[in-house]
Amino acid sequence: MEFFDFFRWEIIWNYRELYAKGLWATIVLTACGYIGGIIFGLLLGLGQVSKRKLIYWPAKIYVDVFRGTPLLVQLLLIHLAVIPTIFGSSQGWWVSGIVGLILNSAAYNAEIFRAGIQSIDKGQMEAARSLGLTHSQAMRKVILPQAFRRMIPPLGNEFIALLKDSSLVTVIAGAEILYVSKVVAGTYQRFWEPYLFAAFLYLVLTYAVTKLIAFIEKRVDINYNPRKKKERA
After folding, report:
1. What is the pTM (predicted TM-score) of this model?
2. pLDDT tens per residue, range 82-131
3. Cβ distance 63 to 111 under 8 Å?
4. How deeply is 206 buried, as exposed, middle or buried, from its count of CB atoms within 10 A (0-12, 13-18, 19+)?
5. Has residue 8 got a pLDDT over 90?
6. Which PANTHER family does the UniProt record give (predicted)?
7. CB contact set of 174 (below 8 Å; sequence gap of 6+)
8. Using CA atoms, how far apart are residues 182 and 175, in angstroms rounded to an integer?
């Protein structure tokens, strides 16, 4: 009880609007980074299973570089060097943050796609080709749908990891949850309230995502039967 007496709730209440904006920024950053990372990661994953060296090696090198370097360093390079060099000036933390999260997430998603595709028996591709499908048609209609079921858990874990990694955008002044907490802590010179509340918000977000992933896993399970639920009810 002494801790709750010590905890100054009014600090959080006074900055509730700023925290709401930070929460929204975190959600948008994560969603954009993940969607872009899924699309780009799929292309990289297909590149890593390609037999053409001109496609395989660039994809392989990209994945190794982005998985082997810290996201923090990548964000700083993108924000302070890459984007200003391309556009002549900084395009703001939104652009740098989303681009950085996309490029980083794509590398991890690429490995998930590669492993998922390679986990499907080679006979599936041979059977599809024998039916007259091209390689791309067989990949799209036969291999990827089967692999997707196996990829849902690791893709879900990557989403959760990206959600927490979005806090690193604070180093480029991204106004997400952690940045707001730093502002509040600096204003009051108190650290329990802002950072514990930030941890609480991340916990709520990750819990919600975990439940959503579990629901999706259940729905795509080949043994899932919604009628059984109705019968029990």
Report:
1. 0.88
2. 999 999 999 999 999 999 999 999 999 999 999 999 988 888 888 888 88
3. yes
4. middle
5. no
6. GLUTAMINE TRANSPORT SYSTEM PERMEASE PROTEIN GLNP, MEMBRANE COMPONENT OF AMINO ACID ABC TRANSPORTER
7. 25, 29, 93, 94, 97
8. 10
* Number of Cα atoms under 13 Å in the Cβ half of residue 175: 8
- CA neighbours within 13 Å on the CB side: how many for 130? 6
Tell me the average pLDDT across 28-34. Answer: 96
* Cα–Cα dist 58/66, whole Å: 12
| pLDDT score recorded for residue 230 | 54
Whole-number Å distance between alpha carbons of 70 and 206: 22
Round to whole Å and give the CA distance between 98 and 36: 9
Contacts 24+ apart (CB under 8 A), 25-28: 25/174, 25/175, 25/176, 25/177, 26/163, 26/166, 26/167, 26/176, 26/177, 26/201, 26/205, 27/205
Q: Alpha-carbon distance 134 to 142, whole Å?
A: 11
Residues present in the chain in total: 233
Amino acid, single-letter form, for residue 76? L
